[in-house]
Amino acid sequence: MGTRDAVSKAPEDQYTAEPFVPAKARSLNTLREAAAGCRGCPLHRDATQTVFGAGNAHARVMLVGEQPGDMEDREGRPFVGPAGRLLDRALDEAGIDPGDAYVTNAVKHFKFTQAEPRKRRIHKAPSLREMTACGPWLAAELALVEPELIVILGATAGKALLGSSFRVTQVRGTVLEEEIHGRRERLVPTVHPSSVLRADDREAAYRGLVSDLKVAARVLA
Ligand code: URA
Ligand code: SF4
């Protein structure tokens, strides 16, 4: 690689939340407060606030989504919008109590495009660099919650946890065992609830989500 390349790529490769993550955080609140000030990548600039994970700190299951959406960005809590409502309904139907879960995202700031100021903000997928930058927060959440099972909601969460070769269509509804940040984890991947809302056949897509979540429920039973 030429010197010029190395220089032009350097700043992006350095994106990381690492210096903002407290070394021996003993509670999720400590992490949450620190994450509010994260400047690990450029996504904090345009978003309203950091949307950290929420839910039961001793949850047996951790659900990992992509990134906060418009409503989550305004409210500061994950999965409070339409995708979250659909997810809660699907969890309930699969026999997983949403109150027993910890819910978070691979990326903690809302990424969007906006044609003009005051116009609707449109979700934009985070880049691999941004996912990697935000990874230390997810690792810290996993280390504290120590869930028995991780439910991967969609491709971004899958790539963030298992690497860029992850394909949700190939592994959805199966139980995976992988070493993640030095811990042996069990994971059940499924589609992202937002993809159900966008599907041509919403009913079939919803059934598919519930059926994958039932696999997760059986692991927890
Ligand atoms: N989609 C996500 O992936 N996460 C949220 O918190 C909301 C919508
Ligand atoms: Fe930090 Fe993640 Fe927000 Fe980037 S997206 S600023 S790494 S919390």
Key terms:
single chain; 221 residues; alpha/beta; Uracil-DNA Glycosylase, subunit E; two-stranded antiparallel ribbon; 9 helices; 8 strands; 15% strand; globular; disordered N terminus; binds uracil; binds iron/sulfur cluster
Helices, strands, pairings?
Blueprint: H1 3-13, H2 28-35, E1 54-55, E2 61-65, H3 70-75, H4 82-94, E3 101-105, E4 112-113, E5 122-123, H5 128-145, E6 149-153, H6 155-162, H7 168-171, E7 176-180, E8 183-190, H8 193-198, H9 202-220
Helix pairs in contact: 4-9, 5-6
The chain binds uracil and iron/sulfur cluster (SF4).
Residues 17, 35, 38-41, 43-44, 50, 107-109, 130, 133-134, 137 line the site of iron/sulfur cluster (SF4).
Question: Can you characterise this structure?
Answer:
The chain has about 220 residues and is of the alpha/beta class. It has one domain (about 10-220): 3-Layer(aba) Sandwich (Uracil-DNA Glycosylase, subunit E). It has helices at about 5-15, 30-35, 70-75, 80-95, 130-145, 155-160, 170, 195-200, 200-220; strands spanning about 55, 60-65, 100-105, 110-115, 120-125, 150-155, 175-180, 185-190. Helix 5 (about 130-145) crosses helix 6 (about 155-160). The protein starts with a helix and ends with a helix. Mean pLDDT is about 95; it is low at about 1-10.
